[in-house]
Amino acid sequence: MLAKIGYVLKIFIAVLLLPFNKVRLKNKKIILIGGHEGKLFADNSKVLYNYLLKKHSKEYEIYWIINSNSSDMAEIDRYIIRGSIKNYSYYLLATGIFFSHSASDVAPVIHNYKKTSGISFCLSHGILGLKKLKKAKNMKKGMADRADLFASVSKFERNIKINDWSLDEKAVKVTGYPRFDDLINKKQEIDVENIILYMPTWREWYSDLSLDSFKKTDYYKEVMELLSNEDLHRLLEKKDFQLHVYVHFYFHRYVSAFKINTKNIKIIEPNFDVQNLLLRSRILITDYSSVCWDFYYLDKPVLFYQFDQEEYNKKRGAYIDLDKDLFGMKSTKLIELLQHLEITVEKPNRHIDDYKHLKSKYFNYMDNQNCKRIVNEFKKSIS
Q1: Shortest CA distance to 338 belongs to which of 238, 221, 219, 201?
Q2: Which of 63, 133, 175, 218 is buried deepest, with most CB atoms within 10 A?
Q3: How confident is the model at residue 135, as a pLDDT?
Q4: CA 68 to CA 15: how far, in whole Å?
Q5: What pLDDT was estimated at residue 351?
């Protein structure tokens, strides 16, 4: 509550200063970029920010919006503190804003009541498919998530945003996602290691629990049963593999609960570069995380471990049929997962070939021109 009052006060000051700033910033083309509510310098927004600095810094004045207490601040060349008077002053006069989750990434509180004067572009966090958006029907009306343009990776995903989210078809552009440029560019630079990456996604119905209550959930028990399994330990030891576990962003406060005493399993720190993990890893295990699309994009094998599929379908749901449309072997039981994992460790290429036929459905582009297409669509909209 105190933080919100502080934001409101700074918004009020920024509005009072607006006539002055209109004159002062008259000839500046300002672009603001953010993501993850200002906590992280990551994901689609990060890649687009770096691209704009490299290719368009003479044309635009570009800033990343970051929280004052973010540990990622040292990585950023040009930034503005999220929720500051300068943040709101620039937001009101920006030529464009880009964000991954909602406009709150770029300007908290004010985004609920007033759009920027320029173009707002939602880059999205992950590809739609395995997670239905609960408030999808309100996307067009809701100020919190409203944007002028929306990025998509395929006609398949575009149709979801138009038909399920009720967005204007002219607003949804098939451009690809910025972070896929990074994956393509770095694929040849980073060596693949004997790493199995395990990235279970979050469950919103567990997100407000205390640490002790979280440890009593079926979700936690299932994950820990996997990590504690002796057959898994023997497989990792025998094949000289490491299992790296990355806890979802919205469950970072529960990281301390995932402790395991074995040399072949490592719990990754929350601020670790996920893109780097994807490039270094040989196999991915997930449940419904959109990171699976990134791994599939890289032509690497994905294993789906959906131990709570029935509950998940009731409380969240997916846009694809989880029994027919996945691009990797699926397990609902631990014993099945271990069998699939052993097969994949032995013959990863065979696993990939079985699902290549779906790739053209889920991706329109397989290149490193996604940022360029996004900027082109942005420029068209302001011309």
Answers
A1: 238
A2: 175
A3: 59
A4: 22
A5: 73
pLDDT digits (tens, 9 = 90+) for 268-312: 988 788 888 999 999 999 999 999 999 999 999 999 999 999 999
Supply angle C-alpha 89, 95, 79, rounded to 5. Answer: 55
DSSP states of 101-121 as a string?
A: S-GGGTSTTGGGT---SSEEE
Per the document, the length of the chain is 383
As to burial, measured by CB atoms within 10 angstroms (0-12 exposed, 13-18 middle, 19+ buried), residue 378 is: buried
Torsion of CA 215, 219, 224, 226, to 10 degrees: 170
Scan for tokens 């397989």, then name that residue.
Answer: 366
- pLDDT the model gives residue 146: 72
| Residue with tokens 């998940």, as numbered in its chain | 312
**CA atoms of 51 and 308, how far apart (whole Å):** 39
CA 269 to chain centre: 17
Closest listed residue to residue 79, CA positions, set 59, 106, 103: 106
Each residue's pLDDT tens digit, 91-122: 999 999 999 989 999 999 999 888 888 999 99
Residue 137 and residue 162: Cα distance in Å, rounded?
Answer: 10
Task: Count CB-CB contacts under 10 A for residue 335.
Answer: 10
Q: Give the DSSP per-residue string, 49-60.
A: HHHHHHHHTTT-
Sign of the CA dihedral running 111, 113, 115, 116: negative
Number of helices (H) and strands (E), helices first, in the chain?
16, 13
pLDDT on residue 94: 97
DSSP 358: G
Residue 374 contacts residue 172 (beta carbons within 8 Å):
no
Alpha-carbon separation of residue 131 from 138, 331, 339, 364 (angstroms): 16, 18, 26, 20
